[in-house]
Amino acid sequence: MEWLALFENNMFFFLIAYPILGAGIKYIDAAYDEKTFNKKTALIITPPLAALWAYTMLINPISTTILLAILLGVLVKNKIDNYAHLLGSAIIVTIFIITIYLKNIELIILPLVFLISAAIIDEVGNDIIDYNKKNLKKNRFRHQFSLYFFGRRYVMKIAILYLIIFGIVELYFLLAMILFDEAYIITDLYSRSKQQKDK
């Protein structure tokens, strides 16, 4: 299992892997929900994306805590709503179970529970914003701020920052999480622009 330790403490690996994961997830979302990308391509990229998620999650206890919290938050909120995400989640869970059986994976329980709670709050806030987007008074700052705050899932970032302050998480994981979300948002913007062009 030496392959697990290959990038264990390599900051640059996480700064590259996290945005790839964020963009990949949104690509799959857009392919199935908005039909702006090809579903076959989404299915093709799902296994390598899931393998990258599992590897990035398993090589470092902090990354385990963050990515497992995101995965469990999405599962709790029942956001696995297409074949590609179902396949990806099954691959991640299978690799995770096999790996923890073969190797002692370190789980930091209290931060994990803390970040799962943050992930769920982000998902709930995002759902509320999506549901009420048409009814929000766009000229009100608090409504615009709500769109910005939950659209970029800031509860998770604040929770990670809190753990950084207490010396539990390294600072570069916050940057990696920011890159994850920004890559997700950029892919979403590209999907929307493509949708407008196709009309």
Any descriptors?
mainly alpha; about 0% strand; about 80% helix; 8 helices; about 200 residues
Textual characterization of the structure:
This protein has 199 residues and is mainly α. The chain is built from eight helices and no strands. The chain has one domain (2-198). The chain has helices at 11-34, 39-58, 61-76, 83-102, 109-132, 141-151, 154-165, 171-198. Helix 1 packs antiparallel against helix 2 (39-58).
Question: Gist?
Answer:
With 199 residues, this protein is mostly helical. It has one domain. It has eight helices and no strands.
User: Shape, please?
Assistant: globular
Content-based structural category: mainly alpha
Helix segment count?
Answer: 8
Quote the average pLDDT. Answer: 87
| Count of strand segments | 0
Q: Report Rg.
A: 17 Å
SSE string:
HHHHHHHH
* Share of β-strand residues: under 5%
| Distance, first to last CA | 50 Å
Q: Point out poorly predicted stretches.
A: none
How would you classify the quaternary structure?
single chain
Instruction: Count the domains.
Output: 1
Largest sheet: none
- Determine the fraction of residues in helical runs and give it as a percent range: over 70%
Describe the secondary-structure layout.
Elements: H1 11-34, H2 39-58, H3 61-76, H4 83-102, H5 109-132, H6 141-151, H7 154-165, H8 171-198
Helix pairs in contact: 1-2, 1-8, 2-3, 2-4, 3-5, 5-6, 5-7, 7-8
